Amino acid sequence: MSESRRVPVIRWRREQPGPDEQGRAVDDNIAVELPVALTYNRVSHVVMMATPADLEDFAVGFSITERLVGGPEDILSIRVIPRNGGTELAMTITEEWFDRLATHRRNMAGRTGCGLCGAENIEQALQRPGAVSNEVSVSQAALQQAVSELEAHQPLQAETGASHGAAWCGPDGAIVQLREDVGRHNALDKLIGSLVRSGFDPAAGFALVSSRASYEMVYKVAAVGIELIMAVSAPTSLAVEFAERSGVSLVGFARPGRHNIYTFPDRITG
Predict the structure, then answer these.
(1) CATH T-level topology, domain 138-269
(2) 92-107 pLDDT, tens per residue?
(3) Interstrand relation of 258-261 and 249-255 (parallel, antiparallel or unpaired)
(4) Is 114 one of the annotated active-site residues of the chain?
(5) What string of DSSP letters covers 111-168?
(6) pLDDT tens digits, residue range 182-227?
(7) Catalytic residue (one of 30, 34, 114, 204)
(8) What pTM was computed for the model?
């Protein structure tokens, strides 16, 4: 399924002279958003609103960062099944993890901007994975290199202006891989899913997201051992607190020529 589609719009611009001031009919590209149901051993778990691309990566990343499985090896199969008005990600997982799933089952649909929708209590919402390692070392210049490359690696954002990007960057700041989605959490889950399916080394780089850094974003990278996450916008208080507890270096307000380091600056040289 396409990630975008064209729709008719009336485009009005104040600077247009004459009769065009009343608006002009044109076609515009918009990002596709649809319900994606994640099911495990034929049992529905949650419905997320997402962009219909890289859905197998999304299935793996969501399952791991939500601690529904221990790793990609616990997902025995994934089927992407078109449904009326949406898509089902039908996963078969090991019996051991399926037995645990009952304690994590969500009770509502997840909106596009939702990271913890459907969590039934505070303890479930504020999970705490173990502390990450301390092996990554990157330079200020590498962080800035990644920021400068981000826009060029977001084709859906360039086309529609409506998607977030999550990138995996090498120690020199070069963007190695990027996933896009209308939801920032979904984009990061897609990236993480792609990385763990290929057997990545968390110490071989850092993550960059085109959004704010909320608690859920820091939690997701900590869950797979990523030691540094950089966001183009602000972090939240809970994101900073969680980064401090989990050992993650958190960088925010990353723009060309500037960024703020909130936690563990020792990983960043220069």
Answers:
(1) Cytidine Deaminase; domain 2 (3.40.140)
(2) 999 999 999 876 665 5
(3) antiparallel
(4) yes
(5) PTT-SSTT--SHHHHT--PPPP-S---EEHHHHHHHHHHHGGG-HHHHHHS--EEEEE
(6) 999 999 999 999 999 999 999 999 999 999 999 999 999 999 999 9
(7) 114
(8) 0.90
